[in-house]
Amino acid sequence: MNIPTPVVFENARILDGTSAEGEHDRFVRVEGGRIAEVSDRPIAAAGARRVDLKGRTLMPGLIDCHVHVVATTADLGRNSRLPDALVAFGAADIMRGMLRRGFTTVRDLGGATQALVDALAQGLIGGPRLVICGKALSQTGGHSDLRGRYDNRPADDLADRLGSLGRLCDGLESVRQAARDELRKGARFIKIMANGGVASPTDPIHVLQFSRAEIEAIVEEARNAHTYVAAHLYTDEAIARAVACGVHSVEHANLIEAPTAALMKEKGAVACPTLVTYEMLAAEGASLGLPPDSVAKIDDVRIRSPRSLEILKEAGVPMAYGSDLLGPMHRHQSEEFVIRGRVLPAIDVIRSATVEAAALLGMSGEIGCVSVGAVADLIVVDGDPLADLSLLTGQGRHIPVIMQAGAFAKDEAFA
């Protein structure tokens, strides 16, 4: 195993969301894959490589808490029928792109398997650290049921295909078995589809999915495994119902109202909005193969999305960064920064992809911060993201250095 050479970053402006303005003129020593020292004075380290940042911004590697790395096409029904090998190579390409944008950790919300986690860990492919839920759980006719009105194939026909984002289960025994099975296969948390969706053909946005008893049973199985349930949710009614049943991570939350946001705060729930995907689906979805039934549903959730951010902030609900993009639209992953920045203070947006995201992953102090003992996932940004969040976009154009666990994934350091 190659041990990365120690590195000292000098004259850095540290920005990780732990302070409103960041800290200037800092020195950071990286050794053994971790941050070994942070100082306001020069650091003596014999044999270390020294990188003078000259006031550039040093940030933690970015964290995206809602991705689908196996979604190689916008048509998820077609994606689920592709050969596993094509999906695996496509996922590898998607993840390489994520790392080039500065995302060193991502949370997959349906589809990715332990084999992809292991391929990354073994260095067979390059990409961000991958935290998975396995296949998302959906009721028959729910958001992971991609069969159309005339498709009568068995419900489990595609469940084991790599390109399938979810699996179907109905009834208390079935949902418990499915949750236990995903945990057995390596899931770090459980994802459920508890509301209608855009990409699925037969469920309008407003429909509730899974019974309360089914949701509570899945939550119990997750808690027994010392983890949590994340849920696909749009409407205020569905969010309130799911949070009351014990769901911890509310994905999307586009149509939330203030009383439900207050309930989330009371219950300690976290939101993971994903505004960029609706903007890109509206602009590109049809041309990329999104079925007409899905295209017709986009504005049902897109138009109200910015107001959801205001409501969640007013209630004090933590928000993690999410993109939720499909196929070629993954290239827009970083645009979520700019979209949120039209509504929220820049520091809040940065926190969503650093400290708040790390907390949702149960990895506070490990990632999402520039602190002694943390994993050395770091990026260098030319300029000040607090003044211009678009510096985090552009496929990493303004990010000359990307470090993952102490090793350079991108090294365009300056003289």
From TrEMBL:
Q: Where is the Amidohydrolase-related domain?
A: 57-402
Query: CDD domains under this entry?
Result: Met_dep_hydrolase_A (cd01299)
| Pfam families, per the entry | Amidohydro_1 (PF01979)
Q: Which InterPro entries match?
A: Amidohydro-rel, Metal-dep_hydrolase_composite, Metal_Hydrolase, Metallo-dep_Hydrolase, OTAase-like
Q: PANTHER family from the entry? A: ALPHA-D-RIBOSE 1-METHYLPHOSPHONATE 5-TRIPHOSPHATE DIPHOSPHATASE (PTHR43135:SF3)
Q: What is this protein called?
A: Imidazolonepropionase-like amidohydrolase
Q: Which domain of life is it from?
A: Bacteria
